[in-house]
Amino acid sequence: MEERKKLALFERIVTPHAGAAYNLARWLMRNDQDAEDVVQEASIRAFRALDGYNGGDSRAWLLAIVRNTSYTHLHRNRSHDFTVALDDSITDIPAATPGPEALLLKRADRESLLRALEGLPAEYREVVVLRDMEDLSYKEIAAIAGLPIGTVMSRLARARRRLQQVLSEQMGKELQIEL
Amino acid sequence: MNCRETQQLIDAYADGEVDLVRSVELEAHLQDCGSCMQALTSTRAIKDAIRGASLRFEAPKGLESRMVSAVRKETSHATKAVRTIRRPLLSRTMWAAAAGILFAAVAAFAGWRALNGIGAPDTVADETVSSHVRSLMANHLFDVASTDRHTVKPWFAGKLDYSPTVIDLADRDFPLAGGRLDYISGRPVAALVYRHRKHVINLFEWPVRAGDFDSNAVLMTGSLNGYNTVRWSRSGMAYRAVSDVAMADLKQFATEIDRAAGL
Questions:
Q1: Domain identity same for B253 and B139
Q2: How far is B144 from chain A (nearest CA, A)?
């Protein structure tokens, strides 16, 4: 493809998704500067790969590149917090906490949610970001992360269980202080 | 549907990702079960909290234009490199440097492709994945159900114009479950069915044809519609494994099969 045409195509299908790209990179890298670097590097990768772009959903295509670039950086900096072995089995997902926690969650403020989500392993964080912020389907997330759909389902369930747990512990403490 | 099954599906249900039939069963259970209903309420609460808290990070100002200029800078570097190489009076060391840069660029690109699961064009991926899905849906996993390769292999005689390699990997946690005659790209091929824990792996085998990608025993991975695929070839036979097991497990399976086939 001609360079000039490629640039035009880049501006048509890649740059409109700058917001989604930045959000995913920011959540994976957990700081502004690294997120910016990842998005710029992913842009170059995406440009080089434009010849192979098959006309599918360009946002999902770009997010897959952003995700791979982020993981490359995380591994390189050895900061990848893959310390807990992930359990990806579809069965034995811990049950959702019933009871008053559901009501408490309604009171959770942005700051505690932010902290709780940032505290999850990257593999759990990304599925929540892609599902509950970017509104992607399980199928799209599976394609972006290179996972079977069943794994997307179980990671989401586990991620939400952990968030519930962390938040209700936090709020329990706050309640005690209030009392 | 019981509590256990309901709990496994509760997030997918809250996300609107459960198919109609199971949704109906699940809703019937929810009507009678207070604790599962509470679990749904609590899952919805966490979803709503995340959505409601506007946790998205806004892109910094001017990011789009910085993306474009990063790409422009990159392409102008590339153009300059080409011009340098074309200059006639190049010293030996400069040639070596240019070759080094080119090699690094090709290697980086190849690495990127491997990282993204992109390889040579994969034209039969759709067909093998569809066949895998069909075999599970229509409950037509086998024509011959047997864990004994001495039963499965002879079954193909007379049905194919080649003799497939049939290997049992029961000792590696991939027991053979049976075989099936399938049609890929308009000709009959051997489909071997293996189990891995609760998952099914379909392994397709056929002699390499003109137009088939010949990887020469290098495993090529990919994924399609949520299924993982590994393809490779050895000694003129093309192999393709399709399953919903994790990619690492599928690659291990492929490596074991390839090793046993090469012995």
A1: yes
A2: 28
Please give the average per-residue pLDDT across B54-63, as a whole number.
92
What is the extent of the structural domain holding B176? 125-262
B244 and A43 within 8 Å at the Cβ level: the answer is no
How many pairs of residues across A and B have Cβ atoms under 8 Å apart? 176
How would you list the strands of the sheet with B227-234, edge to edge?
B144-145, B176-184, B187-196, B199-207, B237-243, B227-234, B220-224
pLDDT-above-70 percentage for chain B: 78
End-to-end Cα separation, chain B, in angstroms:
48
The DSSP output letter for A52 is: G
Domain boundary residue among A19, A42, A76? A76
User: Quick one: B256 and B132 in the same domain?
Assistant: yes
**pTM greater than the 0.80 cutoff:** no
Domains identified in chain A, total number: 2
User: Which domain range does residue A109 map to?
Assistant: 101-178
Both B144 and B195 in one domain: the answer is yes
> Is A83 part of a structural domain of the chain?
no
CB atoms within 10 A of CB B116: 17
Indicate the residue of A10, A96, A151 with minimum beta-carbon distance to B42. Answer: A96
Q: Are B101 and B80 in contact (CB under 8 A)?
A: no
Phi, psi of B57 (to 5 degrees): -90, 125
pLDDT tens column, B118-164: 444 455 677 777 777 777 665 567 777 788 888 888 888 878 888 88
- Contact of A54 with chain B, judged by CB distance below 8 Å, is answered with no
B227 inside domain: yes
Residue A167's CATH number? 1.10.10.10
Given an 8 Å threshold on Cβ–Cβ distance, is B56 in contact with A98? no
In chain B, residues with a C-beta closer than 8 Å to the C-beta of A149 are 226, 244
| ipTM computed for the complex | 0.86
Question: CA of B159, closest CA in chain A: separation in Å?
Answer: 33
